[in-house]
């Protein structure tokens, strides 16, 4: 198996789903992962050691593990989370391992490559930016006395769990440096995939890192946006078209080639096609959801959709 060179951008479970599908159709895979998490084990390590939050990077590495006993064993070790309320309680072992490697060598890419070798990973995992980031969001509807009032929320956890409607996001620092290897991967790709995942905290932050945003605009790669299966959480009440419009609002120069959506998730096909068309994209509707597990992508179905699109 060879296939195209693919860069997949995102974070958390959404990116992991995309990577598990991509492993079935191509060999040259690079995951570019958001580095704005400030909660749980990642947040604790970030605060204590002034490092990139390792959690989403760990999840991407685990998703790319070699499909052998060796790869699966080390994936499970990496994902093991210590129980209890002590100093180790809540930490994933992989987060500690990645942080230890960064303590020995401050180059984050070198440490991630070493963990990839341990897993015999079927690709490479790179950070979205070279420094930890903070997400801020303008959110409407949090004040019961004035639902039209817009307030500022700070931090990935607060934005991801808000009950209000997110209007826009920004990053601090506003102009973070990109890892050179990340830019090189995007420039060399045949396909770039955005999504699925938490729209405002995993998908769109990539478009706010100046160097990465420019690379996504300038690359000769075809650009694919994979939409979510449910409109909940950060995008509660959003249609598929509004998800696309929110992306366009944050990156006006961005152009897409394909928007991929599951038929169950599409509320208005014509509206979605109009929104995608404004970014230069065609809409492809294909069944990619897992049967009996609402909101979850099926790796085999998603792989089939990717394979057909890659041609």
UniProtKB/TrEMBL annotation:
Signal peptide: none annotated. Its main location: cytoplasm. It comes from the Bacteria. It is found in: Cytoplasm. Pfam families: CofD (PF01933). Keywords: Cytoplasm. Transmembrane segments: none annotated. Required for morphogenesis under gluconeogenic growth conditions. Belongs to the gluconeogenesis factor family. This is Putative gluconeogenesis factor. It comes from Pedococcus ginsenosidimutans. The gene is yvcK.
């Amino acid at each position: 198996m060879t296939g195209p060179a693919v860069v997949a951008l995102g974070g958390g479970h959404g990116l992991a789903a995309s990577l598990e599908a991509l492993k079935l159709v191509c060999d040259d895979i690079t995951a570019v992962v958001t580095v704005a998490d400030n909660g749980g084990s990642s947040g604790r390590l970030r605060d204590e050691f002034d490092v990139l939050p390792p959690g989403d990077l760990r999840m991407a590495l685990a998703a790319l593990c070699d499909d052998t006993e060796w790869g699966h064993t080390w994936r499970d070790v990496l994902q093991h989370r210590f129980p209890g309320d002590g100093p180790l309680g809540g930490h994933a072992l992989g987060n500690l391992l990645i942080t230890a490697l960064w303590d020995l060598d401050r180059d984050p890419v070198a440490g991630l490559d070493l963990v990839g070798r341990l897993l015999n990973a079927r690709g490479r995992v790179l950070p979205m930016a070279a420094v930890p980031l903070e997400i801020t969001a303008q959110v409407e509807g949090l004040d019961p006395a004035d639902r039209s009032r817009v307030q500022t929320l700070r931090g990935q956890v607060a934005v991801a769990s808000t009950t209000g409607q997110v209007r826009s996001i920004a990053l601090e620092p506003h102009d973070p440096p990109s890892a050179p290897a990340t830019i090189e991967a995007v420039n060399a790709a045949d396909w770039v995939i955005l999504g699925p995942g938490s729209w405002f905290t995993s998908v769109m932050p990539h478009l706010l890192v100046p160097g990465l945003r420019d690379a996504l605009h300038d690359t000769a790669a075809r650009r694919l946006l994979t939409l979510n299966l449910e409109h909940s959480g950060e995008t509660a009440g959003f249609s598929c078209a509004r998800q696309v419009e929110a992306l366009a609002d944050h990156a006006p120069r961005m152009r897409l080639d394909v928007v991929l959506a599951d038929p169950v998730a599409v509320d208005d096909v014509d509206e979605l096609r109009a929104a995608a068309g404004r970014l230069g994209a065609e809409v492809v509707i294909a069944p990619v959801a897992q049967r009996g597990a609402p909101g979850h992508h099926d790796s085999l179905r998603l792989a089939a959709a990717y394979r057909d699109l890659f041609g």
